[in-house]
Write a structure and sequence with these properties.
401 residues, mainly beta, 6-stranded antiparallel sheet, globular
């Protein structure tokens, strides 16, 4: 457990088996003494036994003391360096940070695109990274578009592409890159998204997945319509065994193809879908009850097994029923095989509020999960108490196969 008023946003694993943690804090101790901040951001590298190697802190918004990392993303490039994107330093307009994976020392602190909110990043073969963002502006006739930027190891821009010009309702969320250099993005589209291969036309909101080559040219695109309210995407992860997994939330109905229409039990429920390499849906399912559920990140291991994180009120995972009292919502972790069959699930029952946020899988099938809670919590029979009663504390837990 780590500090008070601290939240873990994302976890990734490097080639040496160490873990990189991205989060924000007011007061955190990662094992090398307390660090004080004001809703500032941190990135830390932990050894495989979770002992601290190094930590690097930076402001998210020093003028207002507000952290805007909720939309940030993180990746490790071919040289082992760590790239973080998001609104990292509001005053200096820094939104792209590359640090040395061995020491944590900054290599680049850049303003890659001052007109875009950067939301995610993925590493490409050869050392480049691909950054996903959303342009923003205000006023009549103003468009908010999807922006892709390929960044070289020296920080220079290789190419940049804008999708959705002239169509304001596009909301990118996640990006993934394969070993062959292809790129896949996922987001929410309202209306029309003009593309090279085919225009995506959605009468309402749709979950949209676009697959491209390394130059940004479209290979295919598919849309999954949602009937009712605004859907959301938690994560997009490639399956090492083929295809990809998309995870998110929706209210009402969502159509993943023939025989794969899903409906919520009430409120907002979670969806999970496995998509093949051509954009067709292999399977899709939903989890949730009559209240509100929110997705976190997911992990997919080398065998294609999927670990879900997030926040739920009630849901059924195989033989495990998770049901929070009253209107409370708590964190959970669930483990499914590549066919979507749940094998185990655990609630993280807190007296106030809890949420599992992120997970990363190791080659041996173990999974490291990070999240937050307030008050006291019971996680798999282990009892924890937050450092300050009404402020969130963070945790890391390892689940063995």
């Amino acid at each position: 457990m780590y500090g008070d008023d601290v939240q873990i946003h994302q976890l990734i694993r490097d080639a040496d088996g160490s873990y990189v943690v991205l989060g924000f804090y007011d007061h955190v101790d990662l094992g090398d003494g307390p660090i004080l901040g004001d809703n500032d951001a941190f990135i830390a590298r932990l050894a495989p036994d979770l002992q601290l190697d190094w930590v690097h802190t930076f402001y998210a918004n020093p003028a207002a003391g507000l952290n805007l990392l909720q939309s940030a993303g993180m990746a490790i490039d071919d040289a082992g360096n760590i790239v973080v994107v998001g609104r990292l330093d509001f005053a200096a307009q820094i939104n792209f940070l590359r640090v040395d994976g061995g020491t944590g020392m900054p290599i680049h602190e850049l303003a890659v695109d001052n007109l875009a909110q950067l939301v995610d990043v993925a590493a490409l073969p050869g050392g480049d990274v691909i950054v996903l963002g959303r342009t923003w502006c205000a006023g009549p006739g103003c468009d908010n578009d999807i922006r892709l930027t390929r960044v070289a190891p020296d920080g220079g821009t290789v190419w940049q592409r804008t999708l959705g010009e002239g169509f304001p309702n596009v909301h990118p969320r996640a990006i993934a890159a394969a070993n062959d250099g292809t790129i896949t993005i996922a987001g929410i589209v309202f209306g029309t998204l003009p593309l090279d291969v085919n225009d995506v036309v959605t009468p309402g909101g749709s979950v949209v997945v676009v697959h491209m080559d390394g130059t940004g040219a479209d290979l295919w695109a598919t849309a999954f319509p949602v009937v009712d309210t605004f859907p959301g995407i938690g994560d997009l992860v490639l399956d090492p065994c083929g295809g990809m997994v998309v995870y998110g939330e929706f209210s009402g109905d969502i159509d993943f193809g023939p025989g794969l229409a899903l409906s919520t039990a009430g409120g907002t429920d979670l969806f999970l879908a496995h998509i093949d390499d051509s954009g067709a849906t292999d399977w899709a399912q939903t989890f949730g009850g009559v209240d509100i559920e929110h997705p976190g990140f997911i992990a997919v291991d080398d065998a294609g097994r999927i670990t879900l994180t997030g926040q739920i009120h009630s849901a059924v995972f195989g033989n495990v029923v998770i049901d929070a009292p009253g209107t409370a919502r708590n964190g959970f972790v669930a483990h499914l095989d590549r066919d979507g069959v749940a094998h185990w699930a655990y609630p993280m029952t807190s007296t106030a509020m809890g949420r599992s946020r992120t997970a990363v899988a190791a080659p041996d099938g173990s999974v490291l999960v990070g999240g937050t809670f307030t008050g006291s919590t019971d996680i798999g029979g282990m009892q924890f108490q937050s450092a300050v009663q009404f402020l969130p504390s963070a945790y890391l837990l390892e689940y063995t196969p």
